[in-house]
Write a structure and sequence with these properties.
The chain is mainly β. The chain is 0% helix and 50% strand. The strands form two sheets. Strands 2, 4, 5, 6, 9, 10 and 11 form a seven-stranded mixed sheet that branches. Strands 1-3-8-7 form a four-stranded antiparallel sheet, with no helix packed on it. The model has no long low-confidence stretch (mean pLDDT 96).
Length: 123
């Protein structure tokens, strides 16, 4: 059974960087697309980025394009989200989630979720 664990969150100043990791256990990740989502207090969960099972296709929300980069290392069973030029509005709990092979828009399309990691951008 696939399980996902996020790590790498924390407190960072505006303009700073963080790198999140989504580590899988139970099965290998090479058949799964992985999405990153975030949820701020009082707001709906929103998609941030997604990477296909092969890594050949990536997607980004307009709000993070040019600042965030998603990547994966299937040999390590891990997906990463490099976040640069962070803004206070990036503050949220960040989740990774899995679905088969291809990215689709919408949290409901993803089957397996991690517990989340808190990212706080503040001076």
């Amino acid at each position: 059974q696939l399980q996902l664990v996020e790590s790498g969150g924390g407190l960072v100043q505006p303009g700073g960087s963080l790198s999140l990791s989504c580590a899988a256990s139970g099965v290998t990740l090479d058949s799964y697309a992985i999405g990153w989502f975030r949820q701020a207090p009082g707001k709906e969960r929103e998609g941030v980025s997604c990477i296909s099972s092969s890594g050949g296709r990536t997607q980004y929300a307009d709000s993070v394009k040019g600042r965030f980069t998603i990547s994966r290392d299937n040999a390590k069973n891990t997906v990463y989200l490099q976040m640069n030029s962070l803004k206070p509005e990036d503050t949220a709990v960040y989740y990774c989630a899995a679905r088969g092979y291809y990215c689709l828009v919408g949290a409901s399309r993803f089957d397996t979720w991690g517990q989340g990691t808190q990212v706080t951008v503040s001076s």
